[in-house]
Amino acid sequence: MKLTTTLMTLTMLAAPVAIAGENTWEEGAKDAWIDGKAETTLLLNTNLNSFDINTDVKDGVVVLTGKVDSEVDKSLASELIESLDGVNKVDNRLEVMSKDKPSEMAQTLTDSKVVAVVKTRLLIESEVTGTDINVDAKQGVVTLEGTVASDAERDLAVAIAKNTSDVTKVVDKLEVVEKS
After folding, report:
1. For residues 58 and 1, what is the distance between their CA atoms, to the nearest angstrom?
2. CA 72/CA 54 separation, integer angstroms
3. With 90 as the cut, is the pLDDT of residue 1 above it?
């Protein structure tokens, strides 16, 4: 009798632990299943670049992180995930990266490239005194400063700058100084 009571007591104590363990396993499996569905849904949507979107799921809450091109893409990602079975909530932490405005670092690199290309082209051109021209670029706007020997040389320097990739505008601050 004492053995039976002890076994029953142990069974009653162990049952909640076993059930809790099963629930944890089932919840983890459910979250993994939701995560897989979320990633697949984003991947199959041709309007999103899903390689820049990460999904994490905990207790049916899907957290979206990463980068998208627009506010529309951010909203679309949320809507797609909210419609999935088992999703309780979407925590959308996606960062919008506008294609219209390049990052500050990318713009700085582009401006540096523009300065190098314009300056090189001015130095190579035999009809321009490139060593007397300073070239600066900011957000695609090239400023030319310095001296040239004639209006024709000025026009040529400005044309060279205008015909360079990534140049949106040329500011001409060149001074014509006739050389004797």
Report:
1. 46
2. 17
3. no
